[in-house]
């Protein structure tokens, strides 16, 4: 199965969320690969998001297709650098190299409509892969609007949303954060399938791997591994 991971914005915890899902699935005995179509804000040889996933999980089946120095949307970063734009066929080919794995996670850049190239977003990648998307969302104020807009865009593109994952859940959530656990599914029609504890990205690999499965809904995780198609949220609210 292939699952595309996007976010409601940048800095919502997509990379740690990707690592957490990889670790949880590995803990259930499945094989996992992780792909990053476009990495920005890093130079040649510098560690990026894939390196962080490797550090937290030990996954070695990884691929990064395009890399740009400036911390911008990939299409703008490519223009500034005079580098080739992200190419869909290159990305799809890289992901297909892991077809023998039980689950391939494809982490986007920024939000769902961030341009990877002038006419390319992570939604186009998901369509090309015939894959559902998992939305990583913030926990607090503003997330209802951002998450509903993201999921509306996913559904408008004719794609399925596999769930909402809270990218950083505090030890002591405030009123808005607690209410959002109920309100996010209500306004989007998509379930919350997990919460990553704040600071989890600072864990060492052993602790991260030992706890990761606890951060996801057990039933959803089981369906994702054992019966991939049934993990899709399916019904569309809009």
Give a written overview of the molecule.
The protein is an alpha/beta fold and 238 residues long. It has one domain (2-175, 183-229): Rossmann fold (3-Layer(aba) Sandwich). It has helices at 14-26, 49-57, 74-81, 88-96, 122-129, 143-156, 175-188, 205-211, 218-226; strands spanning 2-7, 32-40, 62-68, 103-111, 133-137, 161-169, 192-197. The protein has a seven-stranded parallel sheet, with helices on both faces. Helix 6 (143-156) links the parallel strand 5 and strand 6. The longest helix has 14 residues, at 143-156.
Keywords:
238 residues; alpha/beta; Rossmann fold; seven-stranded parallel beta sheet; 9 helices; 7 strands; 38% helix; 21% strand; disordered C terminus
Per CATH, what is the topology?
Rossmann fold
Can you count the beta strands? 7
Q: Identify the CATH homologous superfamily.
A: P-loop containing nucleotide triphosphate hydrolases
Biggest pleated sheet:
7 strands, parallel
**SS field, number of helical segments:** 9
Give the domain tally. 1
Rough outline: globular
Percent in strands: 15-25%
Compute the CA-based radius of gyration.
Answer: 16 Å
Order of helices and strands: EHEHEHHEHEHEHEHH
Q: What is the gist of this entry?
A:
The chain has 238 residues and is α/β, with parallel strands linked by helices.
Give the arrangement of secondary structure elements:
Layout: E1 2-7, H1 14-26, E2 32-40, H2 49-57, E3 62-68, H3 74-81, H4 88-96, E4 103-111, H5 122-129, E5 133-137, H6 143-156, E6 161-169, H7 175-188, E7 192-197, H8 205-211, H9 218-226
Parallel strand pairs: 1-4, 1-5, 2-3, 2-4, 5-6, 6-7
């Amino acid at each position: 199965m292939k699952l595309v991971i996007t976010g409601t914005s940048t800095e919502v915890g997509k990379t740690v969320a990707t690592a957490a899902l990889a670790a949880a699935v590995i803990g259930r005995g499945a094989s996992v690969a992780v792909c990053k179509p476009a990495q920005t804000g890093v130079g040649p040889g510098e560690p990026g998001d894939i390196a962080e996933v490797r550090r937290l999980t030990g996954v070695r089946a990884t691929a990064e297709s395009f890399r740009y120095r400036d911390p911008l949307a990939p299409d703008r970063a490519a223009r500034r650098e005079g580098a080739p734009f992200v190419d869909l066929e290159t990305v799809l080919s890289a992901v297909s190299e892991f077809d023998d794995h039980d689950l391939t996670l494809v982490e986007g850049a920024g939000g769902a409509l961030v341009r990877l190239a002038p006419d390319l977003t992570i939604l186009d990648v998901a369509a090309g892969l015939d894959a559902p998307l998992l939305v990583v969302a913030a926990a607090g104020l503003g997330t209802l609007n951002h998450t509903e807009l993201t999921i509306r865009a996913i559904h408008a593109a004719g794609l399925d949303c596999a769930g909402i994952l809270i990218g950083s859940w505090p030890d002591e959530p405030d009123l808005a954060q607690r209410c959002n656990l109920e309100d996010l599914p209500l306004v989007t029609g998509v379930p919350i399938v997990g919460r990553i504890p704040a600071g989890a990205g600072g864990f060492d690999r052993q602790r991260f791997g030992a706890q990761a499965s606890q951060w996801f809904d057990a039933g959803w995780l089981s369906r994702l591994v054992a019966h991939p198609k049934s993990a899709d949220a399916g019904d569309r609210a809009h």
